[in-house]
Amino acid sequence: MILDTLLKRYERLRSYRNELKTTPTNKRYDDLFVVAYPKSGVTWFSCLLANLSLRLSEDRRRATFFNLQIFVPDIHVSNHLGSPILPHPGFRMIKTHSEFNANYKNIFYLVRDPRRVMVSYYYFLRTLNMYTGTLHDLIHDKELGIIAWKRHVSSWLEKTPSGNMMQFFRYEDLIDNTSAVMERVMHLWGYEMDGAMIADVVDKSSFEKMKEDEKFYNSGNPTIPEQFEFVRKGGAKHKEEIEQKDLEYINDQAGKLMRKFGYE
Known about the structure:
Blueprint: H1 2-21, E1 32-36, H2 42-56, H3 68-71, E2 93-96, E3 106-111, H4 114-127, H5 135-140, H6 146-159, E4 165-170, H7 171-176, H8 178-189, H9 195-204, H10 207-219, H11 238-241, H12 244-260
Parallel strand pairs: 1-2, 1-3, 3-4
Helix pairs in contact: 2-9, 6-12, 8-9
């Protein structure tokens, strides 16, 4: 009983500290938080949102690896944020990997098939020499693997008050029909944009453009490992990478939640 009480207190304290670190020091009621578990495609989604904002604002710039932080700042880089720099949509868009944060009132949550997340996250960490284990080890890691993914997604599903502005997006839908997802964003924001303008935004944010940007950015930054690629294939093949016993483990741990989002 005493141990359970202490564990609950520790978890509440951990959650509170996380909320402090991942909340802007100057909170605004209209902040939009773009949330995702790591390697779920949030950088690409942020690039799309930034280019959409630029197009709406009739700003001739394009979101790149170098300037994306200006348009969609990462709360894990700094929680000291300035005012919105573009007239449209007129509010700040903030990227975060945070678990549920009670200070977030407007949320776009990007979810991705966790089996593909595991593969992508594994190669990302290995390339940066931040993880020395195998893919099997990572999948079973309570702080990085499928249990962590389940905890992250569940926290937003179960704890978000019904009065908050919450929208879930699937990475796979972004891949299959990027324009349709951007049209959905426009509708949520209350704007109208013709097909040609949407197509321009999608083109400026394509994987090809992002890979070109990354290559150009990396060539001028000697601190980045030569073999490192943040933008990989855009679709890690989990069936080719994950052993059957680990696929079964993933299903045992998170199958019900996966099916909720259409991941069979």
